[in-house]
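Worked example

This section walks through a single chain of length 186. The input is the sequence exactly as stored; nothing has been trimmed or padded.
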Amino acid sequence: MADGQNVSESVTDRARSAATEAASGRDSEAVSRFVERFASQLVEAGMQRMPARVFAALLSSDTGVMTSAQLGEQLRISPAAVSGAVRYLSQQHMVSREREPGSRRDRYRVHSDQWYEAVTNRDAVLRRWEDALREGVQQLGADTPAGRRLAETLAFFEFLQGEIGRLMERWRAHRAELFGGGRAEI
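Given that input, the structure is written out below as C-alpha cells.
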C-alpha cells in the first residue's frame, strides 16, 4: 500500500471515529478511562496487556467493529501491537477479523456472544488437560501423593466440563429472556 493511501485511510478513520463519537454524544475521556480500567481487570485475571486493551476498546465501541488504524489511534499503540493483540484475541475466539467492504483493510469485530464463545471453546483445552492428567495418574501411580493430587485435579476438570455444558444451556435461556432470541449486535 502506498504511503499516501495509508495517510488518506487514517484521516478517513479519524473522521469516521469523530463523527460516530459526536453522533453518540460519548465522552472520549470517559470511554478511555473505562477501556483502561476494564483492561487492567482483564490483565489481573491473566490476559496479556495489549489484547486486554484492544478487547476493551472493541467492547466499548458502539458498533463493536474497529479497524487497525482506529484501534491504534484510540489506544495510542503501533500497528504491530494491534496486530499481535488481534491475533491473540482471534485465537481465543474473542474477536473476529473481517474485510472492510470495498477495501483491502481488515476490521475487527467483537460479538455479543464473545464470552459464551470464549468459555465453550475451552472444551478442547479441558479435554487435553484431562488426557494429560489421566496419563500422569497412571505414570505416577494413583496411590502416591502426587498421583492422588493429579486424580483430584482430573476429577475437578471432568466436573467442570460437565457443568459448563449445563451452564451454557441456562445462559442461553436467561439471555433469551433478557434480550430476545437474536444477537444484540449492530
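What to look for: The longest strand covers residues 96-99.
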